[in-house]
Amino acid sequence: MPIVDRKPRTFSGKPLVWLLCLLIACASGAAWSVPAALLAKPAASSPTTDPAADRDTRDKLALRLRTADGLQAVVPSVSNGVATLDGLVRDEARRKTAAAIAAQTPGVVKVENRVEVHTGLGTRLRAAFDLMVAKLIQLVAATPLLLVAVAIVLLASWLGGFFARRLNWLRIKSSNPYMDGLLKRVVQSVAVLIGVLVALDLLGATSLVGAVLGSAGVVGLVVGFAFRDIAENYVSGVLLSLRRPFSPGDHVVIDTREGKIVALSSRATVLMTMDGNELLIPNAMVFKSIMLNYSRNPKRRFDFTVSIDATESISKSSALALEQIAKVPGVLNDPAPSSVVKDFAPTGIVLQFFGWVDQRESDLGKTRGEAIRLVKAAFATAGIDQPQTTYNIVSKRASAEETAPPKENESTRGAQADTSVNRDIDTQLAAAQRAEDKNLLDSGETKP
C-alpha cells in the first residue's frame, strides 16, 4: 500500500484580523448612538389636571363676576388653573376690573383677558335689562323685609298722629290755635322721620340715610331760594299767630283794605270786605303793613262837620248841636260829645262835632247819621241859617193866588232812631268762617 506522504498544514492569521476589524466597527457605531440616547435629558412630564378643581374655580369666579357691577356679561372658563375671560363690557375700567377679580380668585394661576369693550346701543340696553332683572330678583327676595319696613313706617305715622292729637299728655299743648296746629305737625313729622330711618336701617340702606342727611342742607338751601315767598308767608303766619294783632270777626284796615277778619291760614289772611267779598292778603304783606284794628277798642269816635252863616253865633250853634248829639241812642256820655271850630272863611263858619259809641252795642255809621239828622233839624227850628253863598233869581212875578209851599222842619226827637249794630254781612261772615276748615285763629269762641 502506497504510503501517502502528506504535507503538514500551517494556520493563517488573516481571518482573525478581519474579525477584529468588524468588531471594532460595530463598537464604534454603538458608541456614537448609545451615548446620545443615554445623555439626552428626559422630557418634563406635564402636570396632572383636575377637572373638578377647575370647575370649582370657574364657579367661584363666575359668582364674583355676577355680583360685580357691569360684569354680568363676562363668561369665565378655567383650564389647568388658567382663567380665560370672554364677553363684552361697556368701558375699559370694567375690563380691568374683571381681570383683577379673576386674578384674586383662589385657584387661578394665570388670567387670559379676552373681554372686549363694546359701547353699542344694543349692548347698553342689554346691560340695563340685565341689571333691571337682577334688581327685580333682589326686590322679590327682600319682599318680606320690605313689608316689615313699610309696617314700621305706617306704625310710626299712626303713633305720630296719636300723640299729636293728645299734646296735653306731653305737656306741650298751646292755647294759640296756630301754634297748636304747628306743634301737631312737628310731632307727627318727627315720628314719621324716625320710622323711615328705622325702616331704611332694617333694609340695610344706611348709606342712603347718610346721603339723605348729608344732602339735606343743600336741598334746604335750594328749596328756600325756590320757595322764598311761600316760606316768608309761612313764617309771617307764625309770627302773626304769636302776636295776635286781630281775632276772628275784628273790623280792620290793612294797607287801605278794609273788612272783617275771617281766618288766618299758613299762607294768607282771609278778609271779608264790607261789600261782602272775600279777600286773601298774603301773611308777609299783613305782617309788614300798617294795620288799623277798629275792634280792638270797643269805644270808637265819629265826627261830622256843619257849616253856618258868618252872622250866626258859634257858641249857641255848638251848644244846640251838642245837646242834640247827646240825645242820640248809643252816644256815650263818657267821653261826652264835643265840638271845635274847624274853619272860618268868607263862605261861612265850619263847625266839627265829635261823639263816641260802644261798637259792641251801636253801629258807628247809623249813630253818626242820626246825629247829623238831629243837628240839622235843631238848626232849622232855631233859625240858624246855612252860609248864604247861593242866590236864586226869580224872573217872573208871582200872582196873588200863588203861595209858597210850607217847609217841613225836621223833628228834634230821636225816639225812632235806629242805632243798632250793622249786621248786613254777619251772615256771610259766619258762613265764610264755617267754610274755612283751617282757621288758625279759631279758638272755639264766636264774636258777637
Automatic annotation (TrEMBL):
Residues 398-411, 434-448 have a biased composition (Basic and acidic residues). It is a multi-pass membrane protein. Keywords: Cell inner membrane, Cell membrane, Ion channel, Ion transport, Membrane, Signal, Transmembrane, Transmembrane helix, Transport. It comes from the Bacteria. Residues 398-448 are annotated as: Disordered. Residues 1-30 form the signal peptide. It is found in: Cell inner membrane; Cell membrane. One of its GO terms (cellular component) is plasma membrane. SUPFAM superfamilies: Mechanosensitive channel protein MscS (YggB), C-terminal domain, Sm-like ribonucleoproteins. The chain crosses the membrane at residues 136-161, 182-200, 206-227. Coiled coil: none annotated. Residues 49-119 form the BON domain. InterPro entries: BON_dom, LSM_dom_sf, MS_channel_C, MscS_archaea/bacteria_type, MscS_beta-dom_sf, MscS_channel_2nd, MscS_channel_C_sf. Its main location: membrane. GO terms for molecular function: mechanosensitive monoatomic ion channel activity. Homoheptamer. Mechanosensitive channel that participates in the regulation of osmotic pressure changes within the cell, opening in response to stretch forces in the membrane lipid bilayer, without the need for other proteins. Contributes to normal resistance to hypoosmotic shock. Forms an ion channel of 1.0 nanosiemens conductance with a slight preference for anions. Belongs to the MscS (TC 1.A.23) family. This is Small-conductance mechanosensitive channel. It comes from Luteimonas gilva. The lineage of its organism: Bacteria, Pseudomonadati, Pseudomonadota, Gammaproteobacteria, Lysobacterales.
